[in-house]
Design goal:
188 residues, 4-stranded antiparallel β-sheet, 7 helices, Alpha-Beta Plaits, alpha+beta, single chain, 2 domains, 44% helix
Length: 188
């Protein structure tokens, strides 16, 4: 069992998010009894601290994929970041990232997790983003709505870059490009 799964089980069984001190104690205990690490202690501590955000994932969330068309002239991660950053229209309770490297080549796109109210509908979210972003095609935006805390947690992890091993080369390439252009790895 991966340590990240053990940490998640511990958090789930505690019934509440541990304090930073409790997290550090948990991690020290895990590294003492499970010497083969998935990540370094510092990486695991950061991942666990990021998981504190998961307490926000109870409620309704929209997982949004934005794939600009060629006509939108957003051909690099930097252009897409600069364009999206100030225009998306969601000022709080949103987490997003820019990616570009895929199995099928280079295609800059965005993943976002947006807290919505329970009456929000997919069409309303798409129309709001189309209006704010002024994209040329409704097919550029994919929205999936969920109130399942576990699914929303998994989507949050996806945005952070916690993906299948087969995608890790692309994740690494995205991280390097974001560092090159001074783009945050993900934005809260």
């Amino acid at each position: 069992m991966r340590k990240s799964m053990v940490i998640k089980i511990i958090i789930d069984n505690m019934g509440k998010i541990p304090t930073n001190e409790q997290m550090d104690d948990i991690l020290r205990m895990l590294w003492r009894y499970y010497p083969i690490a998935d990540y370094t202690l510092a990486e695991a501590q950061e991942k666990l601290r990021l998981n504190n955000k998961s307490k926000l994932l109870h409620g309704h969330y929209a997982f949004v994929g934005i794939n600009p068309c060629i006509e939108d002239n957003l051909t690099t991660m930097k252009e897409l970041y600069d364009y999206f950053r100030d225009r998306h229209g969601y000022k709080k309770d949103v987490m997003w990232c820019i990616e570009g490297h895929t199995e099928n080549g280079y295609r800059p796109h965005i993943h976002a997790l947006i807290k919505i109210n329970k009456n929000s509908r997919k069409g309303h979210i798409i129309n709001r983003l189309l209006k704010n972003l002024q994209l040329s095609n409704t097919n550029s935006i994919d929205v999936k709505i969920s109130s399942d805390p576990l699914l929303n947690y998994q989507r949050q992890r996806y945005i952070i870059g916690d993906k299948q091993d087969s995608k890790m080369d692309n994740v690494t390439a995205d991280q390097q490009e974001r560092e090159l252009y001074n783009i945050p790895q993900y934005i809260l």
